[in-house]
Amino acid sequence: MSTTVTPAATLSSASASIASRRSVSIATILKWLVAICVAIVAVFPIWWMFNVVFSHPGVPISINPRLYPTSLSAGLNNILTIFTETDYLRAYYVSVMYTLLTIIGILLFSSMAAFEFAQFQFPGKNLLFGIVMISLMVPKAVTIIPTYLLTVQLGWLNTMQGLVVPGLASAFGLFMLIQFMKSIPAEMIEAARLDGANHFQIYWHVAIPLSKNALITLAILTFMSTWGNYIWPLIVAPSPTMYTVGQVVGLFNAPYSHTTVDIVMTANLLAAVPPLIFFLIFQRQIVEGIAHSGTKG
Amino acid sequence: MSSRTTRSIAHYLMLSPFMLLFAVFFLYPIVSGLFYSFFEWNASQTSHFVGLANYTKVFTSRNFEKATWNLLIYVSITVPLGIFVALSLALLVDSFSGFWAKFFRSAFFIPVVMPLFLAATIWRWIYAPNFGLLNTILGWFGMPSVQFLNDTGTMLYAMIAVDVWVSAGFNMVIILAGLKNVPRHYYEAARLDGASTFQQVVHVTLPSIRPVLFFVITYGLISALQVFDVPWLLTGSSFAEYGGRANALLFPVMDMMGRGFGSVRFGQASAYGFMLTILIVCVTAVMFALRKKFGDA
Amino acid sequence: MSFKAGFGLSALAAGALFSVGTAHAQEKVTLEYWVYSDFAQGEALKLQQSFIDEFEAKHPGLTINIAGKGDDDLLTGQIAGAASGSGPDVFMNSTSAGASLVQAGALKNIYAEWMAMPDSFRAQFNKDLIAMCTPKPETMYCIPYTGYGSLMFRNLTVLEQAGVDTKAPIKDWADWLSQMEKVKAAGKYGVPDMTQNWASFLNIYSGVAEASEWGADFETKKTLINPEKYAKTAEFFQKLKPFSTGTNINDQATRDLFISNELAFYINGPWVNPPLEQAAKASGLKYDWVMVPGATEGKKAGVQGYEFIGVAPKANSKLAFEFAAFVTEKQQMTRWAAALGRYNSNVESLADPSVSSNPLLAATYESAKTALYNKPPFFLGTFPNSYWSAITDNASAVADGDMKPDEAASELIEQLNEILADG
């Protein structure tokens, strides 16, 4: 190649392209390496917990660090123990209902309010918005006792509404949706109005579809904070018939609980299964959501 | 004029479910909490007005000083580090496409899905002295065992690591949603101008996702100032035992909860909460002022 | 009382908003009965349920709901419940939480009801514990219920491997240390980190101290810890350090090490026995229990603590008291102790042959004779949490060599008195 007569410009461009290809490939390898390492760090602890459950009992963690599962039957046995010795199934039901109702409520109420705050001017808007935003900065722990006392006064102790309703006014959800809904073009809303849509119809048919991604994100975040919520169910639903999964796991995690590590981890693992399932389902939806908004935008 | 009035009514109607719940289950508890902070309050016994005594008592206590100092160090590390990790992960995921983008996004997000009590249980095992997973790995390299959760020099950093592990995926998803909205032709234009990948990130990506970053940073700050769950679960996780050795993991919300439920001093706890609220309001105000100064995007 | 009025008003407003009916049928009575989680699991739950069934049979229309709670959740729920009048009607807790519960208004003074009980019933209980429940004249907050005394569990496999004669009793701390030397030489751990937790601290401190040298005087707001004895304890912690696992006695990891023949000595309450028993069956763990060794020959160490059953100051408190008296009565406590091998405060039940033959219970009984109470005095004042962490932090610092024992002792006493004075 060197013997052929080539213009200097072509030569330099060719060598540049080789260099860049080489640097790209190194960057690509590095990129994969980092991605895989981070993925291991992120997933390993959960994988490890799974292995603790599905391992031969008696072999201590200090000797066998549980890097892979060794016994299916031991794991199934652990799971059976949990289901027979505790009311885990009922706790699942309570937690699922608590979570679902909370998600529905938060998505509906926050998006309605966020739509107004993000897109319109009306008297008192800044005042109302200011108050809601300040509440975002109040630590939850400050309000927990007064909220609890109020819930008791309503006669909602040990009820689903007692669990759900006080958590529905989510300033966080509102804040997040406002940030997203601000990007809806005002012309789209004006166009819908000119087409004769009323206020609620604009919200339902224009704002909601356009905010699908944000709503899904909010739904999953709400799912997690509700599923993992510990202190509120603890005080507002003290009866065993209303125990959430978190409370049942709490019984096993207590220092004086009479159980070995494999049983404790089984209780924990079972609490992690629904969020994992929810998350896997949600994966497809977010992809669809992105595609959907992509075609609209 | 009248059409504007009816339109206003529509706005308020849409706002009303949220605002009603908000007033009953958020504003009212906050106001009553403020009220308690001026009383010596033992729940059932007659309470009496004590003026600012609760505030001065909290303010002059040794634990308050320790908790505030811990908080300061914690926030100044965990917020920048957390955002940096989340942004890096988002860019990393964004650089993949198709299946692998989805795969890594899911993998990085998994820790967020786990209930916190579960994450803490696992991490306590990973951090265990002598035979814990991390110490085993250190042992391979001939390093001495570290008491991650019982050595006052490492406790805070060990906790920040868990904190970042738990929350990086959360921020990553939000930043990713922002990245998807950056028009692709911006990058093409930058590339035509000869910008390197790093330059593209600095000059195209970051400015384009400024609102999202603002949200992530502000929310990260607010929640870091209220940190409770992770240090609580990594230390004694009981009202009789929390904060860890030499209170190295004592934070204001934890100290406040301890005064309320552990020592039955709800007046002090309320006062504590309000002092913390004022701090958070100030920090957030600074954030918003900064955003105004550097222009809204 | 102005708060209650405030809540009433808000409830009225909220009630109007949500229109919640509150009508209830009057003849049916339901009592909420809260216990520790281990009382509401397995064997223990079956027995508790049969107590409840028997009591309900005598009181038509009565329903008693038993609810198990983790240690901390039990206290949190009771305090929150007392604040709103919605807590349990009858419940148990540790006597060390007694003062907090009194302060929260969760406990009714049951002195009149107690005195109305026949002498034959009142004579069944441990006198010291009755005195504990009666902090002031004519003020009684509880009926003593169950209890524990700490024991030292020994992993026999580890000790045999190390060449320790497990038949010979451990005479004193020096003897104990020499056994741990051998254990360490065999590549195993001697003890968990005893400085990390107030209970494990007390298990060592009780090896030198007397009952009058533990706890606090809430009148003068002074700690009762003896600085010289504390210094001796701290010095011993330094000696224990090389044999320590570095884990808290309550960590799951500590139990896992013991079960897996990595740890020789494990000092804790009798409640850790069920998982050890299970491990003995599943993996062939060989273990036994002995008294916690004291510093010198003849000095016994150990910690004892008690649970009480109390009644909330609510509408059905009479019935709730009757139920409390029923479950603590000799017949029930005898069945309880015989079936579970768990210690309790009903002395007559412990003397029953079906009970006294249980080895774990016998050992607990033996330990409780001389052990120090966990967090005395009870029902008189609340210890700020920092009181206990100050002790463990100080002990850890000495064990790490950051402070000299005698300096640490005087510093600790000063710090504890400061904490008590602060309230």
What are the main properties of this structure?
heterotrimer, B: 297 residues, mainly alpha, 13 helices, 2 strands, 1% strand, C: alpha/beta, D-Maltodextrin-Binding Protein, domain 2, 2 domains, three-stranded antiparallel β-sheet, 20 helices, globular, disordered N terminus
CATH architecture of the largest domain in chain A: Orthogonal Bundle
Class based on secondary structure composition and strand pairing of chain A: mainly alpha
Estimated helix fraction of chain B: over 70%
In total, the number of strands of chain B is: 2
CATH-assigned homologous superfamily of chain B: MetI-like
The largest interface is: A-B, 90 and 84 residues
Overall structural class of chain B, as computed from helix and strand content, comes to mainly alpha
Mean of pLDDT of chain A: 81
Termini separation of chain B: 33 Å
Order of helices and strands of chain B: HEEHHHHHHHHHHHH
Number of domains of chain B: 1
What is the CATH level 1 assignment of the largest domain in chain A?
A: Mainly Alpha
End-to-end C-alpha gap of chain A: 50 Å
- What is the CATH fold-level name of the largest domain in chain A? MetI-like fold
Rg measurement of chain A, Å: 27 Å
